[in-house]
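Letters spell out the chain; backbone shape is given numerically. Take this protein:
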Amino acid sequence: MFGLSPAQMIILLVVILLVFGTKKLRNAGADLGAAVKGFKKAMQDGEPKAKDAEFKSIDNHTETVKNETAKTETTKEKEQA
Protein backbone atom coordinates (compact mmCIF):
# COMPACT_ATOMS: atom_id res chain seq x y z
CA MET A 1 0.00 0.00 0.00
CA PHE A 2 1.53 3.32 -1.13
CA GLY A 3 4.87 1.56 -1.57
CA LEU A 4 5.31 0.98 2.17
CA SER A 5 6.45 -2.28 3.64
CA PRO A 6 4.59 -3.73 6.64
CA ALA A 7 7.44 -2.73 8.95
CA GLN A 8 7.31 0.89 7.73
CA MET A 9 3.55 0.97 8.24
CA ILE A 10 3.92 -0.24 11.83
CA ILE A 11 6.52 2.44 12.55
CA LEU A 12 4.24 5.06 11.00
CA LEU A 13 1.29 3.93 13.16
CA VAL A 14 3.44 4.08 16.31
CA VAL A 15 4.57 7.62 15.45
CA ILE A 16 0.95 8.68 14.81
CA LEU A 17 -0.08 7.21 18.18
CA LEU A 18 2.73 9.07 19.94
CA VAL A 19 1.92 12.39 18.25
CA PHE A 20 -1.87 12.37 18.60
CA GLY A 21 -2.39 10.04 21.53
CA THR A 22 -4.90 7.26 21.83
CA LYS A 23 -7.64 9.49 23.26
CA LYS A 24 -7.68 11.87 20.29
CA LEU A 25 -7.58 8.99 17.81
CA ARG A 26 -10.41 7.22 19.64
CA ASN A 27 -12.50 10.42 19.61
CA ALA A 28 -11.78 10.96 15.92
CA GLY A 29 -12.86 7.39 15.15
CA ALA A 30 -16.04 7.78 17.18
CA ASP A 31 -16.86 11.06 15.43
CA LEU A 32 -16.29 9.50 12.05
CA GLY A 33 -18.47 6.52 12.93
CA ALA A 34 -21.27 8.79 14.18
CA ALA A 35 -21.09 10.85 11.00
CA VAL A 36 -21.39 7.76 8.81
CA LYS A 37 -24.26 6.43 10.92
CA GLY A 38 -26.08 9.77 10.71
CA PHE A 39 -25.56 9.91 6.95
CA LYS A 40 -27.00 6.42 6.48
CA LYS A 41 -30.00 7.27 8.66
CA ALA A 42 -30.63 10.47 6.73
CA MET A 43 -30.50 8.58 3.45
CA GLN A 44 -33.05 6.02 4.70
CA ASP A 45 -35.32 8.70 6.21
CA GLY A 46 -35.26 10.82 3.08
CA GLU A 47 -36.69 8.19 0.74
CA PRO A 48 -40.05 7.55 2.46
CA LYS A 49 -40.63 11.26 2.96
CA ALA A 50 -40.21 11.89 -0.74
CA LYS A 51 -42.65 9.10 -1.55
CA ASP A 52 -45.14 10.38 1.04
CA ALA A 53 -44.95 13.87 -0.43
CA GLU A 54 -45.60 12.45 -3.89
CA PHE A 55 -48.65 10.53 -2.67
CA LYS A 56 -49.97 13.60 -0.83
CA SER A 57 -49.63 15.62 -4.02
CA ILE A 58 -51.59 12.99 -5.94
CA ASP A 59 -54.26 12.89 -3.21
CA ASN A 60 -54.58 16.68 -3.30
CA HIS A 61 -54.93 16.63 -7.06
CA THR A 62 -57.57 13.90 -6.89
CA GLU A 63 -59.52 15.87 -4.28
CA THR A 64 -59.38 19.00 -6.44
CA VAL A 65 -60.70 17.10 -9.47
CA LYS A 66 -63.55 15.64 -7.39
CA ASN A 67 -64.49 19.10 -6.11
CA GLU A 68 -64.45 20.60 -9.61
CA THR A 69 -66.58 17.73 -10.93
CA ALA A 70 -69.10 18.21 -8.12
CA LYS A 71 -69.29 21.97 -8.86
CA THR A 72 -69.81 21.31 -12.56
CA GLU A 73 -72.58 18.80 -11.87
CA THR A 74 -74.30 21.24 -9.48
CA THR A 75 -74.11 24.00 -12.10
CA LYS A 76 -75.61 21.71 -14.78
CA GLU A 77 -78.46 20.74 -12.45
CA LYS A 78 -79.25 24.41 -11.75
CA GLU A 79 -79.25 25.22 -15.48
CA GLN A 80 -81.66 22.34 -16.24
CA ALA A 81 -84.10 23.40 -13.54
